C-alpha cells in the first residue's frame, strides 16, 4: 500500500469514528474473519453538491444537506465464534410516500421490516423460539425527536419476524433528504444476551413526480415532496374531468383520502359506478398521455429516474442494461393489464380508459393477461427457470404474472421452506449486489457483514456462513453453473498460440464480474472480449508503434497489460503472497500433443 493510500485510509477511519460518536450507532470491537474471507472497511458515501445548488438532473447532486455525509457501518461477525446469522431487509425494497397533506393522501408512510435468525452449524436451523428481535432506526431520518424502535414479531406459522407500519420519512432536517436510512436489528435470548446483530436500509422516498405534469416546485430541498401548488392542481384536474368537488373539500380543511373511492368495499351504491382501483385508475388515465416513452414514463412518476435523488431501481438488473419495462411492461401494457381485471369485473370505466390506449408488446389487448395490483406481479421464474441463465438481451417477465400473493418474490421461500428469497438475495429492486446512491454497499450490508462479498448469501462458495461447512450441493434451489468459455479474438488477429479457455468458477469467489466485463456486458448475449467497441484493436507486433501497443483496446492488453488484466492481477496476488493464476504463456495457451 502506498503512503497516499495509507493516509487516505487513516482519514476515512477518523471520519468513521466521528460519525459513530455523533450518532452512537457504531459497534466497536475487533472483527475476526476466517482466512477465506476478505475484510470490508466502512464505506463513506460521496458528498454531493449542496441542495440549494443542485437539481434533479444532476446525478449525485440531487440530494439535500446530509444526503452524502453518511457512513455505511457494517456490524461485526466472527465466523469462528458467532453461533447465529441474522439477516434483515425491507419488504418493499422502497416505500413510496406521497406527502401532499393536508390537501390529499394517497401513499402514507408505513414501512415493513423483516428478519430471519439462523442457528449456524451443520444442518442450520431457523430460530423461532427463545429469541426476541428488536429494531432501532439509526437516527438518519425523521422523526428525529423520538428515536423509532420496536420489536419484530414472529409471523404465525413461519420462520419470519416482522415489524409493520414503521412511519419513516426521508427527511433529515428542513432541506435534507435521505431515502435510505439504516435500521439496526438485534436478536437476544431469554436472558438478554446478544445472539446476533445486523443492519439494513429501510428505504422511503417522497420523490413522486406529480409536479412534472401538474406544475409547482418540489416540496423539500428542491428534490422531493409534493408541494401545496402541485397538490392543489391534482385535485382541480380531477374535479374538471370527473365532476367532483375535491378541491373545495380540501380548501375547507378536509383531507381527501384517494383510496376511499378508488378501493371501495362492496358494490356500487344506489346505481353509481364504482371507480377503478387506485393502480388501474392512475395508470389507466395517464397511459393515454404518456405513451411511447418506455421507461421514461415510469421514471416521470416513480422515484426511479437514473438522474433523480432516489434512484430506487438499483440492483444488478440495472448493470445488465434492463429497465422497469422488462418486468412490468411499457406504461401502456402495464395499464392495460390492470384495466383488463377491472373489465372482467364489469366496470364500464375500464372500457372507456382502454379505448384511448394502444398496446405495445402485443397486437391484441386480449393477449394481455389481467392482473390484480400487488397480487399478480412479474414472476421471477418468467426469466429465471434455474435451467440456464437468462439472456439479458431478450429476457422479459411481462405478462408472466404470479398466480397469487404467495408467489410474490417477497413471500416465496427456498426449497427447504425455511428461508424467504429476500433473506439471501436482498429486497425487491435491490437484489444483491445493489448499488446505492448513498454508498456502493449501503444496500449490501448483510452479505458484506457475513461474507465480505456483495453477492447473495452463500454465493461463490460462502455456504460456510450458515452451514459451518461446504455442502456437496445446494438445498435451497438449483444453481446455474458459470461455464468455462473460450476467449474470443478480434477479426484479423494472427494467433501464434491456441486460444485460452477461461474458467469462470475459478474467479467468481473473489472477482466481481464487472472487473472484466465492465458496464456494457450482456450476460449470455453477443458481447465478448473482442466485440466491436471493446478490445477489438489489432496491432502488428512487429510494425506497431508504441502508442498503438499502449492502446487499452489493443486485444493483447486486455490480458497482458498493466491495467485491469489477467497477468497484472495474478502478479499482484503473487507479490502479496496469495494464490493466483499463471503468468507463463504456456500455462494458458496449452498446445495439444
Keywords:
593 residues, alpha+beta, eight-stranded antiparallel β-sheet, two-stranded antiparallel ribbon, 18 strands, 23% helix, globular, disordered N terminus
Summarize the structure.
This protein has helices at 3-23, 211-214, 228-242, 246-251, 259-262, 278-287, 295-301, 316-319, 325-328, 331-344, 348-354, 421-425, 445-451, 464-467, 513-517, 546-549, 557-560, 566-575, 585-588, and strands spanning 43-44, 71-72, 84-90, 95-96, 104-105, 111-119, 125-126, 131-137, 149-154, 161-166, 182-189, 194-201, 204-205, 218-220, 224-226, 256-257, 485-486, 501-502. It is α+β, with helices and mostly antiparallel strands. A hairpin with a 6-residue loop joins strand 9 (149-154) and strand 10.
* N- to C-terminal distance: 43 Å
Alpha-carbon Rg, integer: 26 Å
Main sheet: strands, sense, barrel: 8 strands, antiparallel
Q: Shape, please?
A: globular
Number of helices: 19
Residue share in β-strands = 5-15%
Question: Any low-confidence stretches, pLDDT <50, length ≥5?
Answer: 1-9, 12-71, 520-525
Question: Helix/strand-derived class?
Answer: alpha+beta
User: What is the strand tally?
Assistant: 18
**Percent in helix:** 10-25%
Overall average pLDDT: 82
